[in-house]
Amino acid sequence: MKEISLNILDIVQNSIKAGASLIEVHISETDTTLCFSVKDNGCGMTEEFVKNVTDPFTTTRKTRKVGLGIPLLKMEAEMTGGSFSIESRSEKEYEDHGTVVTACFRKDSIDCIPLGDIVGTVCVLIHGIGDEDILFVHQTPKGTVRLFSAEMREMLGEDVPLGDPEIVAWVRDYLQEAYQSME
Amino acid sequence: MKTLEELSAIRNRMKSKVALREDSNEIRIVVGMATCGIAAGARPVLAAFVEEIEKAGLVGTVSVSQTGCIGMCKSEPIVEVYKAGEEKVTYVKMTPEKAREVMEKHIKGGKHVVEYTVGTAYNYGGRNHDSYTCTDLWRYRLYLVG
User: Fold this and answer.
1) Top-confidence residue, A180 or B14
2) Model confidence at B125, in pLDDT bands (50, 70, 90)?
3) Which residue in A has a C-alpha nearest to residue B56's C-alpha?
4) Inside any domain, residue B14
5) In B, which residues are within 8 Å of A124 by CB distance?
6) CATH number of residue B42's parent domain
7) Residue B132 pLDDT exceeds 80
8) In a designed cystine with B40, which of B60, B76, B108, B137 is the match (CB 3.0 to 4.6 A)?
9) pLDDT tens, A88-123?
10) What is the DSSP letter of B128?
11) d(Cα A137, Cα A75) in Å, to the nearest integer?
12) Radius of gyration for chain B, computed over Cα atoms and rounded to the nearest angstrom
């Protein structure tokens, strides 16, 4: 992957597939580090599956026997001297089930990929949103950008779907302005 | 400064429009958004379609959706176009520029952009040979006959 924001997009797709009703994407940056976590309340994974999940030959996809999303992210984070972790509680065993994926990157490493077009990632997430809600929070030393789909739904009511192209365009403008105002 | 309250205004403005428009969704555009698609550049391709549909006022007539791995990872970003009563058209190795061209020529103009379809890629790009599934080969045969 060329951007951390593409990894985020990819990891969130797993949460959607896990049937989560709430997905929290949290990015927190310092001058030298960038950590992000994707937390969901989806079906979770069994201990056995979590152990093997960073192995490319473990996947849920049906068209291939190889899944590279998680292994790629782990590699990219660790290459910078950062870290990767995944914790999960399966719905088979826990009532408060779900998964948290956390990756930390050292921005001063030459191997660190840029965050990239995070606004584009959030737009694609809002466009593809179903019944689940997504909370996006990005903290930097300069300030915080936040968007919560549940609050958007409250404003839009039942009349306008969140994934409507006009709403996606609004999200793009809203976030771009929020980032600009931090500069 | 933009605020969430603007969404209320958009809602009021769109309410009448949404009620009036008959969501025929006669054209469905599907973009592969699994790891393979995302890594190959599907995000800006999807964004280009969403943007162009909004600009052209085709919301309700043309829908865009995201899907998982289509099974030809080498040819990502892949875009499938479903039109009522027509054979599905599969575009491969898409870019935002190609997406805009497909919007103009195929979605608005009704003419397939043959050079970007999986059939053509198969014909000229022999290297991708092994990444096509049987159904696609079969579809390619139909495409040649039709």
Assistant:
1) A180
2) very low
3) A165
4) no
5) 33, 43, 46-47, 66
6) 3.40.30.10
7) no
8) B76
9) 999 998 899 999 999 999 999 998 999 999 999 999
10) G
11) 24
12) 17
User: What is the domain partition of chain A in residue ranges?
Assistant: 4-182
Q: Write down the CATH superfamily of domain A4-182.
A: Histidine kinase-like ATPase, C-terminal domain (3.30.565.10)
Write the ipTM.
0.88
Q: What is the 3-state secondary structure (H, E, C) of A39-67?
A: EECCCCCCHHHHHHCCCCCCCCCCCCCCC
Beta strand ranges found along chain B (DSSP E): 27-32, 62-67, 79-83, 89-91
Residues of A in contact with B43 (CB under 8 A): 6, 9, 117, 120-121, 124
| Residue B7 included in any domain | no
pLDDT of residue A22: 97
> What are the DSSP E strand ranges found in chain A?
22-29, 33-40, 83-89, 98-106, 133-140, 143-148
B7/A10 touch (CB, cutoff 8 Å), yes or no: no
Q: Which of B11, B53, B66 sits opposite A128 (nearest CB)?
A: B66
Domain count, chain B: 1
Whether residue B2 is contained in a domain is answered as no
Count CB neighbours of A19 within 10 A: 14
Residue B59 pLDDT: 87
Residue A52 and residue A65 in contact, taking contact as beta carbons nearer than 8 Å: no
The rounded mean pLDDT for chain B is: 83
Give the tens place of pLDDT for each residue, A11-56: 999 999 899 999 999 999 999 999 999 999 999 988 888 888 877 7
Residue B68 structural domain:
21-145
* Pair of tokens at residue A137: 């929070």
**φ, ψ for residue B145 (rounded to 5)?**
-70, -45
Cα A102 vs. chain centroid, distance in angstroms?
9
Structural tokens at position B120: 């053509």
Mean pLDDT over residues B30-37, rounded?
Answer: 93
On the 0-12 / 13-18 / 19+ scale of CB atoms within 10 A, A47 is exposed
Contact call for B7 and A156, based on CB within 8 A:
yes
DSSP state letters, B21-53? S-----EEEEEE-SHHHHHHTHHHHHHHHHHHH
